[in-house]
Amino acid sequence: xxxxxxxxxxxxxxxxxxxxxxxxxxxxxxxxxxxxxxxxxxxxxxxxxxxxxxxxxxxxxxxxxxxxxxxxxxxxxxxxxxxxxxxxxxxxxxxxxxxxxxxxxxxxxxxxxxxxxxxxxxxxxxxxxxxxxxxxxxxxxxxxxxxxxxxxxxxxxxxxxxxxxxxxxxxxxxxxxxxxxxxxxxxxxxxxxxxxxxxxxxxxxxxxxxxxxxxxxxxxxxxxxxxxxxxxxxxxxxxxxxxxxxxxxxxxxxxxxxxxxxxxxxxxxxxxxxxxxxxxxxxxxxxxxxxxxxxxxxxxxxxxxxxxxxxxxxxxxxxxxxxxxxxxxxxxxxxxxxxxxxxxxxxxxxxxxxxxxxxxxxxxxxxxxxxxxxxxxxxxxxxxxxxxxxxxxxxxxxxxxxxx
Length: 404
Ligand SMILES: Cc1ncc(COP(=O)(O)O)c(C=O)c1O
What we know:
Elements: H1 12-20, E1 32-33, H2 45-53, H3 68-82, E2 92-95, H4 98-109, E3 118-123, H5 128-135, E4 139-146, E5 152-153, H6 160-165, E6 166-172, H7 184-197, E7 200-204, H8 220-226, E8 235-240, H9 241-244, E9 253-257, H10 259-272, H11 278-288, H12 292-313, E10 326-330, H13 340-351, E11 353-354, E12 356-357, E13 374-378, H14 383-399
Parallel strand pairs: 1-11, 3-4, 3-6, 6-7, 7-8
Antiparallel strand pairs: 2-9, 4-5, 8-9, 10-13, 12-13
Helix pairs in contact: 2-11, 3-11, 4-5, 4-10, 12-14
The structure holds pyridoxal-5'-phosphate.
């Protein structure tokens, strides 16, 4: 057996299941889960239609790189969304969702024979980053997000000796779970560090189309372009249709950026055997070429967040995020001294609402677990169900009498 498998941590939902298995939720309430961040809005008809019309695509082996027409649709979308011009053949590659690409990229990039191979990850973070680093033979170094600065990841806190051995940095903007969008100044810092130390930046942008400010989130390619780095050296952006177009089951996304990295990534993927089905490639072209369904989807999230957030803000430390579909809420200190796990357990027991304790999404680093005292609420269900859950959370918090 590969001994590195033993280093993998249980997934947050597995840990939550273990922490709640003894609980018998109050049967007076029907179960509501704000736990899993899986899109639940309806898949647009135009995507379903494209699938129906492309079933012939199942009859042949698909190309690993993706059909030229799909890669061109992705490059055209990048041009419309970020005003960047990428070569569809050498700088764009289709992938089966960002999850597998985030993982596979580490296997392509990391040289485990170099002493102290390190992957820098935000904390809290999407757990694939850590598993990808470990299975590539590297060690993750966690950088905490700072609640005083809109949960920005404090890159400047990484010591020089860590940067020297860093081979890969994961950025998540908009962030899961914080919703924070990384500003240009921080991109500038990271690009300069990448230039100095030669590490690759993997920019996970899968929440980029669900946002609450007027201005759409800045993308990494857009930031590089604005800073005169249009060769995108050592930069790979990862984008997905899962959240943008409500097709998590289609497993469709793409990566774009540094042509030299893309070439090696394609070589790796050819052996790994991760080509997207021809049927879903056609459906993906339809999805990337249409913006109307994305606007409607975003509006639906905006209306939902506008209703739910103020309600929860009455009892939790929470505000509208920059983007994404999560609320990253601080739990009140009067309930079990602000312990996020106890809060999730109590809420499930009394009101049958599942939330994800923040400490399960982060690791202890630099003396703290930056997720502790917070819960992640995925507002993916329809608005009525989210409102019902929010009302129960309000009742739960108000039901607990502060101990003196
Ligand atoms: C931060 C982040 N990155 C990547 C993914 C993977 O998304 P997909 O593989 O569907 O593109 C998720 C899924 O929830 C996520 O939260």
